[in-house]
Amino acid sequence: MGHRLMSTQLPTTFDPAEIEARWYSHWEENGLFRPERPDAEPFTLVNPPPNVTGSLHIGHALDNTLQDVVVRYERLRGKDALWVVGVDHAGIATQMVVERQLEERQDKRTNYSREEFVDKVWEWKEESGGTITRQLRRLGCSMDWSREQFTMDEHFSKAVLKVFVDLYNDGLIYRDKRLVNWDPALRTAISDLEVENREVNGHMWHFKYPLAGGETYTYIERDVDGNVTLEEERDYISIATTRPETMLGDGAVAVHPSDERYAPIVGKMCEIPVGPKADRRLIPIITDEYPDPDFGSGAVKITGAHDENDYGVAQRNGIPMYRLMDDVAAMRADGAPYAAESARAREIAAGANFNANEIDAMNLVPDEYRGLDRYEARKRVVADIDAEGLMIGVEDKRIMQPFGDRGGVVIEPMLTDQWYVNAEELAKKPIEAVKSGEIEIVPKTWEKTFFNWMENIQPWCVSRQLWWGHRIPAWYDEDGKAYVALTEAEAQAQAGDGIVLTQDSDVLDTWFSSALWPFATLGWPDKTDLVEKHYPNDLLISGFDILFFWDARMMMAGYYNMGEKPWDKLYLHGLVRAADGQKMSKSKGNVVDPLGLIDQYGADALRFFMAAMESQGRDIKMDEKRIEGYRNFATKLWNATRFCQSNGIGASETIAAPEAKLAANQWIIGEVAQTVTALEEAMADLRFDAAANTIYHFTWDRFCDWYLELIKPVFAGDADSPAAVETRAVAGWALDQILVMLHPFMPFITEELWSKQGDRPDYPLITAKWPVPQASISKDATDAIDWVIELTGNVRSAKNELGISPGAKLAAFIAQPSDLATRTIDRSSAAIERLARLTPVTVGEAPAGPAMHITAGGDVFVIPLEGVIDIDAERARLQKALEASKKEAKSLEGRLSNANFVERAKPEAVEKARADHAHHASEVERLTSALARLG
Fold first, then answer.
1. CA–CA separation, 647 vs 661, rounded Å?
2. 729-741, pLDDT tens digit by residue?
3. What is the pLDDT of residues 317-372, one digit of tens each?
């Protein structure tokens, strides 16, 4: 087969920036990210929608690189590859951004109506909301931008409202008063997944709760053998708390049923030691399994409206749950005076009937604390109790505190009315699907985590107290009865004429809408061709950190709304960490900007680093040197292509391998076939690291370092000889196969080289055909080349070990050559001399004296060293270096076997010790081998 010589000579230097901008706009403008392939097999994946407020971070770079590798690979294989792209409206984050802008202008949200504020958010979105989509283009993401989605688009909102109404009508969504994570900075409920628990310095206060009416009891403590260690008469029960301000909402004190210390006072009443003396509240002492008799005093105050554990105790025992704070976590200032509220609370504690709405309306904050910030109220409560002599003591203590991941302030557990999804019911089919293998999670190790969360899943709170988002389609009459419908008109029809309705002011959690992403982006609930062809999706690639935020919820939504799984396979990748293994964070100052890396090294180098380092879910450590190395890899390919052009090697006209007679040409054809197979196997298993390293080593080692060296002599002779014609055809074909196989990883440089290799009127590289080499090659020929390569590599290593110049030509002897060695030495002596620098090669015994032994296959060459190096000096040098490495390796081994060092030293110090030990152990092996070569 021939080749086209209409190539355009490449510049001397490789400039990624110019190439990237030019090719990306060409691909997008020509619709090449989703070419018309109506009859092709579909392949579909959806991009996890980044926040509309977002900008590209290193985690996005990893996630989107892996997706792009897959989608470009499947496109090259001829599939109708659809990569759905879009952004999430990001309710909390976006509202924060717009409110912050207003504050900068001495303005605020509450100066506007809801509709006016939402209009301002839309204005912001149009002006500033596309940052990350531009940045994804810089990374080379081949998404279907012609159908870019937004979770607040009209068709998407239609899907969201339908799902809410359907779930409500099926009894799977409901309104309930439950404890939520309340973010006082954002003034909204947030999910458990949006809470960061941090260990901070705190205090534990110990207080006396006096028994009602001055009653006393004998308090007895015993040791493990039952001996009395303390016996005294008490008129109080001791309570410990880290949040004294919540005492105002106590509904009971609980002790464990088996705790004999408090048996005499179970069922009695005790007094909350705060507030006006005349109006002190009394609460019952109850038993419950929750208190731990061995922790603190063993008695626990129960504040059901402000603590998750207390909430469970209060629910089990019918204890009232009094809410103390408003939406900014200040002590409530509404309601009746404290004296009246306290009097009613005492009646309830004594057994009077009550309902949840009455309890929620009651304000049990004493008048003098009302309106105070919760922490100011804490100081006042502690000081007042102490002044009365009822504080036993206070201890410094490290405590876990929940912080909102966006608001940045301490979360307040709060009893509020919210909308909930029955996640337990919706989780059943996803659990069954993963167990049966209908949905595959890769790597499989994540299945245990998935099952643990899904099988213990709690009701999903989906309402948020925001203005930006999908407003909940529920309307209330004056009695608070809800009417859920797609439109206000439908709700009015349910309620009847003349009934005044008010729409719920809350919006839906953004994860509720993004759960619909695999099908709502395709046009659902309308029956579109896209839904028919591309649902279920084939694959989802996601960071493990959103497994429950998003991935699991897509499973729930897929089975509920579509009756089937959202995708066949879920691939979970790890985090990108700093070079020292620490998690990246702005506070640590170790965040890496992917756009800066692209500016410095090019998008291709960053992408290749991400793929090559992605090893099925393990975290990736940033290593800028490796990114630089992959930039050098791109330069290597660039220069190899320039060499090809200088020798008349251009674009191939054939997908199948050309006919070849020369051993080197047959060898490279076989190497291409093996590489394609290995690459396809790696991609089928989603082994990105294996796939990247396969094409890397083939390109650098087999093609650039060996094949181009092997064929150089062909071009030194007659340019029109049959050997030269054949070699140009094979080399052009092999280079084309490299460009196609490498394209998913390095799309920009490969497209540039593809275009510069010659006139290709039919297709650019992005829509080329995946290699299918089918050629008859001689095993004798390929074995001979492999033999020469192994011999050359071993000679070069031995020279390096012994400090012999790489260019030095050495005589070699082979006493008993194999048939392969005999044939190769006879036919390829010029190649052996040029590559291995062995000349002459003599078949026979070597003369006596110092020599090194080199193997190739089963053959052993003896290479005399007399006169080549100073044997004694070299032996002394190697021996000295060997002893030093042995000593260092032994010292490091001792440190690493010391449990104290491994457990207590900084992780980076331990890691360095391990790396140093591995280096010296390798040196011991290398130096021992070098000494053996001297004889």
1. 19
2. 999 999 999 999 9
3. 999 999 999 999 999 999 999 999 999 999 999 999 999 889 999 999 999 999 99
Which residue type does 379 have? K
Residue with token string 């230097």? 13
And the tokens for 1?
């087969």
Q: How far is the C-alpha of 78 from the C-alpha of 36, rounded, in Å?
A: 11
| 443 upstream amide cis, omega within 30 of 0 | yes
pLDDT bracket for residue 759 (50, 70, 90): confident
3-class secondary-structure state, position 675: helix
DSSP result, 56-120: --HHHHHHHHHHHHHHHHHHHTT-EEEEE-EEB--HHHHHHHHHHHHHHTT--GGGS-HHHHHHH
Q: What whole-number distance in Å separates Cα of residue 93 and Cα of residue 111?
A: 20
Q: Could you count the other beta carbons within 10 Å of the beta carbon of residue 785?
A: 25
CA distances from 730 to 529, 602, 658, 719 (A): 43, 30, 6, 15
On whether the CB atoms of residues 412 and 436 are closer than 8 A, the answer is: no
pTM: 0.86
What's the chain's Rg over C-alpha atoms?
Answer: 37
In this structure, the number of other CB atoms found within 10 A of the CB of residue 16 comes to 22
User: How does 32-53 read in b/e, with b if 16+ C-beta sit within 10 Å?
Assistant: bbbeeeeeeebbbbbbbbbbbb
Residue 515: name the closest of 475, 470, 456 by CA.
470
Write the DSSP symbol of residue 662.
S
Using alpha carbons only, give the angle 730, 734, 735 rounded to the nearest 5 degrees. Answer: 120
